[in-house]
Amino acid sequence: MSESMHGMWSSRLMFILAAAGSAVGLGNIWRFPYVAGENGGAAFVLAYLVCISLIGVPIMVAEIMLGRAGRKSPINTMQDLTVQSGSRPGWRVVGWMGALAGFMIVSFYAVIAGWAVAYLIEMASGTFNGADGEFAAAKFTSLTSNPWTVVGWHTLFMAMTTFIAARGVGEGLEKTVKYLMPTLFVLLLVLVIWAAVSSGHFMEGLSFLFAFKADQFSTDSVLMAMGQAFFTLSLGMGAIMAYGAYLPKSASIVSSAVTIAGLDTLVALLSGMVIFPIVFANGLEPSAGPGLMFITLPLAFGQMAAGQFFGTLFFVLVVFAAITSAISIIEPAIAWLVEKLDSSRVVAACVVGGAGWLVGIGSALSFNTWSDLTFLPGKTFFDSMDYLANNIMLPIGGVLIAAFTGWALSEKIFNEQLADVSVGVRAVLRVLIRFVAPVSVFFVFLMTVFFS
Ligand code: PHE
């Protein structure tokens, strides 16, 4: 099939912007800095870079390849490729698991993104000017402890996401990434320059990220780094597979995957270069945890010259990044509904967006009404979704995708999809996809289950 029924990206560049839009998100700006901060900085960054190259890029190549070979939603793509390759029907479960993981991810993703919208407005209206630590912490608690406000912001974010998704691949997804992604890169560069010029602690921030100290290297940082590589590249649940289905035949998969992973890594590192100098300039702790972005940063912005303006830019950046990711999290399920029920894109988007919103209420209430309710032992609904999706479902999805592509997919399809690269590059990729990626991911998975 040369075209997908859902539409196509108008060029390779648009695919790259869309996939980079999916990859670049809260994982880069909110999660990467605080996880790096908690795991010793440079040691974690090094492990993360290794994981991106050895596991992330090969699995991304695999996902794009499967998507483009099938040209349907991940569920039906897996179904068709299984039949075409004469492999066992069990492989189809990859598509279903991915759609399920998508609902789990969007449920907590939309809640955090909703907070970012709230902070954007607070920042712009000068709430944090001159604020002290107590005020910043109280503000965060007052936002999250009121169920109505959390659900309200979460609803607004899901509504925006659903609206874009409903407009379809060309008018919705592509138009959004076409404008938001370049803006995002410009905003980020402006912020890095601002942090470099005005914080007075840029070098300290840099050395925290890049000055490797062997004594800070623990097994745990490696595990966290692997998990982060997965989540940040949107791998293991079919988001990139769904986007691959809309990629023109002539575009190179390998160079696209390398570009997307490169952009994603760049954004994570640049976000660190904005956040850590500001943290050090204000004598704050890099290991503040998930609150780093919502408590520490607003406080720091409130203390700095022109902080209101740059703080507002920062949260605009976060919201843009979150939206271009959220639309990709629900795309696999939307595409499947359209195929299955022959329903319109608008109906499918509303059903999937609505279902994601509903599950998200559980995550929203985890910070207030349901804060004592545990689902997995000792974990609120929000924590359970985050844990199950990121530590279990994405790794399993990733192992299965790599294993299917390496072992079960017909060699003809594999070679056709990678026809633009040399035999040598194909051979290396085959080894990475067959052995290196699945074995390492499996290893992460076991370690995560047994040691966390
Ligand atoms: N990669 C996104 C981020 O870093 C999150 C995401 C995960 C998006 C899985 C799609 C699929 O924020």
Question: Mind explaining what this structure looks like?
Answer:
The protein has 452 residues and is an all-alpha fold. The longest helix has 35 residues, at 307-341. Helices cover 77% and strands 0% of the residues. The chain has a single domain (12-451), classed as Up-down Bundle (Amino acid/polyamine transporter I), CATH 1.20.1740. The N and C termini lie far apart (44 Å). Helix 7 (147-166) crosses helix 14. The chain is globular and about 65 Å long. The structure holds phenylalanine (PHE). Phenylalanine binds at residues 22-23, 25-28, 105, 231-232, 234, 237, 239, 325, 328-329.
CATH architecture: Up-down Bundle
Q: Roughly what fraction of the amino acids lie in strands?
A: under 5%
**Total tally of structural domains:** 1
Label the structural class. mainly alpha
| CATH C-level category | Mainly Alpha
CATH topology: Amino acid/polyamine transporter I
Radius of gyration: 21 Å
| Associated small molecules | phenylalanine
Q: Which residues form runs of ≥5 with pLDDT under 50?
A: none
| C-alpha end-to-end distance | 44 Å
Mean pLDDT: 90
Biggest β-sheet description: none
Helix fraction by DSSP (H/I, runs of at least 4):
over 70%
State the total count of DSSP E strands: 0
Count of helical regions: 18
- What order do the helices and strands follow? HHHHHHHHHHHHHHHHHH
What general outline do the C-alpha atoms trace? globular
